[in-house]
Amino acid sequence: MSKRQVRIGMIGYRFMGKAHSHAYRDLPFYFDLDVEPVMQAIAGRDPEAVRQAAGKMGWKSYETDWRRLLERDDIDLIDIGTPNDTHAEMAIAAAEAGKHIICEKPLAMNAEQAGRMLEAANRAGIVHMICHNYRFVPAIRYAKHLIDSGRLGTIYHMRATYLQDWIMDPKFPLVWRLRKEVCGSGTHGDLMAHSIDLARYLVGELTEVTGMMDTFVKCRPIGEMSGGLNAQVVDDRYGEVDVDDAVAFLGRFANGALGVFEASRFGKGNRNGNRFEINGSKGSVRWDMENMNNLQLYLDDDEKGMQGFRTINCTEEAHPYAGVYWPAGHIIGYEHTFINIMHELMRGIAGNFSPEPNFADGYRNQLVLDAVERSALTKQWVTIPT
Ligand SMILES: NC(=O)c1ccc[n+]([C@@H]2O[C@H](COP(=O)([O-])OP(=O)(O)OC[C@H]3O[C@@H](n4cnc5c(N)ncnc54)[C@H](O)[C@@H]3O)[C@@H](O)[C@H]2O)c1
């Protein structure tokens, strides 16, 4: 019997569009799904570029206005991979059109917008997710299992850093990621949003924060993104950078743990240094995206004299998702995090539920982002609304 189809309409087809397209293509190859994802249409504004992208990435059709995807009755799911200022308008309209949604992070420009997106999704009864793909790294899933099963004991600390260095050249152009009216915040909403998501996933809700933010290069030539994290200067005029280059904050978790967080695009030598360490009463874990298959684990009940951090290569059947790919030791990569999250999305659509992380997580994440920004401005501790 043929499976129910999930016909996808994707908006934005560059960095995340490429990652999502690849995931939809590979998904049925690895997972036995209850539904059949169909790459129905993409939307972009440049007719020739969107036509080429559709052909290259394997989409059946294309539109030059994203609203057309919502009018089409052969689209079931809207995938939003455009800059942050567009998410709320697109997601609310998609929900009102009765389409399921996966939206890139951060969910919105601020918590007020994110709250409206959550309300619209709930009102429409559609399935929704936010693309915090790092939750779907097998090593992180396994860390979650160790924490939830009590192997690390009471959690006291989470220390997370997310460091990149791609904008350190002062001539690197003023792209959308550095303009507040388009991105909402800089490194904060881009990188820190991921660390906050991992903190909420692994340790729990944050209750209060105190933070600081700064911008090291305040003026840049006008430019645009050209794929991945590359960009080109398109104008010899300069414009003001009005978002943070770097951010740090301290936070308290509801369960009593303490959090220390830092994100920067000025961490020279760190290309995608997404890392954390969690310490509990009985053990600790450490993880680093640039070595993503490995989890460092310390357990206090190891024999005295043999104690120490061990490296677990999370590619065994026992590690979430790892078993669907290759034999143990045959590592996976960045793109597999997107295949895994799209698998959860398809499960959600098949079962009519919104898998985590969904818009409720995106909203709670945004409350923390907003609170850190407010704290940086006021130099006060800020309580996160419950
Ligand atoms: N999950 C992750 O790890 C991750 C990584 C990178 C980016 N992101 C998020 O994904 C989103 C997109 O980032 P990106 O890196 O793919 O950006 P990008 O600049 O590479 O691509 C953006 C795409 O959106 C299109 N676009 C812009 N405005 C549009 C509009 N009004 N209508 C239709 N298309 C429009 C552009 O033409 C382009 O195709 C952002 O929200 C970003 O924060 C998430």
Automatic annotation (TrEMBL):
It comes from Paenibacillus ginsengarvi. It holds the Pfam family GFO_IDH_MocA_C3. Signal peptide: none annotated. Keywords: Oxidoreductase. Residues 140-286 form the GFO/IDH/MocA-like oxidoreductase domain. One of its GO terms (molecular function) is nucleotide binding. This is Gfo/Idh/MocA family oxidoreductase. Residues 6-129 form the Gfo/Idh/MocA-like oxidoreductase N-terminal domain. Transmembrane segments: none annotated. Coiled coil: none annotated. PANTHER family: BCDNA.GH03377.
